Amino acid sequence: MENLLWIIAGLLFLLPISVRAEDDLKLLARNIAEEYDIDEQTLFNLVQNESRWVPDAIGDGGTSYGLVQINCKYLPLHCENANDPEFALRFAAQTIKYDTAWKYFTSCSCIQGLKSWGVKVKGNASNLIPNTAPFVGAVALFRYGNVHHAALITAIYADHFVVKETNYSPCAKTIRKVDFDDPRITGYWTNK
Question: Do residues 131 and 82 make contact, with C-beta atoms less than 8 angstroms apart?
Fold first, then answer.
């Protein structure tokens, strides 16, 4: 019975530590976002998507490590420090600041997704002004309440088109069919 009490006490002691550890990581991320002058939520979303705030997470079949899942196959020079939360958060913050996050991470931004597919676009979805009719390779523009969204048109049919996109579902890449009469469509954009 005494051993059981020690086990229960130990488990109760561990729970607050893990909660406290995540809070400490979020405070560190908040401070780094401020230091790099980037949107804190973008950094939070990236970490949530990549590791769920687990600092020693392992993914991609054992090739990606740490809070932001630095892939040692593609970034061997960063691999040694991948499990260091401060290093990982600074690496992610730098890629966000210099607009290169789309090269390394699953995107939590529709614009970053477009960039990863070769669309030359600046700013965010709310900056894109309709300037074309729909065609394969154009960007479909949407508004969901107060949220602007952009997706790449990959196919066109008589009554609908198909888009590939990131962040329609939070931090996920998706392909979906969109009817031409969808009331959330605000127009179509191209950089050409």
Answer: no
